[in-house]
Amino acid sequence: MTPELRHLFQPGQIGRLVLPHRVVMGPMHLGLEARDDDGAALAAFYAERVRGGAGLIVTGGAAVGRAGAGGARYGVLTDRAFQHRLSRVVDTVHEAGGLIALQLFHAGRYAVESAFGLRPVAPSPVYSRLSRCEPRELSTVEIAHVADEFAAGAELAQWLEFDAVEVMGSEGYLIDQVLRIRPEVDDRKCQRRDTGFDHPRSPFSVAARRSMACPTASRPMRVTVP
Ligand SMILES: Cc1cc2nc3c(=O)[nH]c(=O)nc-3n(C[C@H](O)[C@H](O)[C@H](O)COP(=O)(O)O)c2cc1C
Fold first, then answer.
1. Which of 28, 58, 100 has most ligand 1 atoms within 8 Å of its beta carbon, as the pocket-test mutant?
2. Cα separation of 30 and 73, whole Å?
3. How far is the CA of 191 from the centre of ligand 1 (A)?
4. How far is the first Cα of the chain from the last one, in angstroms, to the nearest whole number?
5. Per residue in 80-91, pLDDT tens?
6. CA 141 / ligand 1 centre spacing (Å)
7. CA nearest to 140, candidates 203, 214, 70, 60
């Protein structure tokens, strides 16, 4: 085994979370999240990955609110039935000896309107070829509300005893839409930078950090804020 590979199989640490080694299963939406089976299929899928040796599993993106769902088969964290499914997932993964992080997700302009009859929202009303609609531009107040949704999702993760949360900030979804603002395209997009997600003191970052400081937390947690 090369030295690099030996390092891969050494214990690792993310914040206070200790991993047995550094092989982490990346987030993958499975299409099982909204299945009405009390989480049986979802839990079975992840338990198999623990048995396969994953050091840490990151769930597929869980929408922090209905407007951020990427389709009708997405789990929405405010939905009680999904919370029960996630609870079963966490218990099953822990019983199998694994660690699991909840990925907090908001599709922004890529959200699917037909899922819940909600028009997608985004930092700017730029047409999306993926969702085939022009999203509604978020107001400053609404941006703070989305930040609160992420914070609530993180608190729920603590309550459900996930080992960590991951904030989905890539691949063109909502946070990426804020971070990829191009001033030359639209001045209004520039203004969004001041109230957006990308500053340590932005409503999003503050809310997420406040949530992670929750005194009821019993497990080591780490939030990745872009
Ligand atoms: C079916 C499928 C679902 C995915 N769902 C998510 C997701 O929910 N969240 C996320 O951050 N990435 C998601 N991804 C992206 C993967 O985590 C990964 O970044 C991507 O597949 C590239 O890695 P790879 O080259 O190892 O495949 C998904 C990928 C696939 C194929």
1. 28
2. 9
3. 31
4. 35
5. 999 999 999 999
6. 31
7. 203
For residue 83, what are the domain limits? 20-212
Q: pLDDT at position 171, please?
A: 87
Please give the backbone phi and psi of residue 23, each rounded to the nearest 5 degrees, phi first: -90, 110
CA-closest residue to ligand 1 atom 13: 28
* 110 belongs to a structural domain: yes
110 in active site: no
What is the pLDDT at residue 140? Answer: 79
Distance 145 CA to ligand 1 centre (A): 27
Does ligand 1 lie within 6 Å of residue 60's CB atom? yes
Of ligand 1's atoms, which has the minimum distance to the CA of residue 170?
11
What's the CATH number where 63 sits? 3.20.20.70
Tokens 């500053």 identify what position? 199
In a domain, 219, yes or no: no
Looking at residue 165, its pLDDT comes to 93
2 is a domain residue: no
52 lines ligand 1 (CB under 6 A): no
Residue 4 inside a domain? The answer is no
- For tokens 């409503």, name the residue: 203
Q: How many domains does the chain have?
A: 1
- pLDDT, mean of each 10-residue run, the chain (226 residues): 89 92 96 97 98 97 96 96 97 98 96 95 87 88 85 93 92 82 49 47 57 43 38
Element (H, E) at 13: strand 12-14
CA of 26 to the centre of ligand 1 (A): 7
Q: Concatenated DSSP letters for 189-204?
A: HHHHHHHSSSSTTSHH
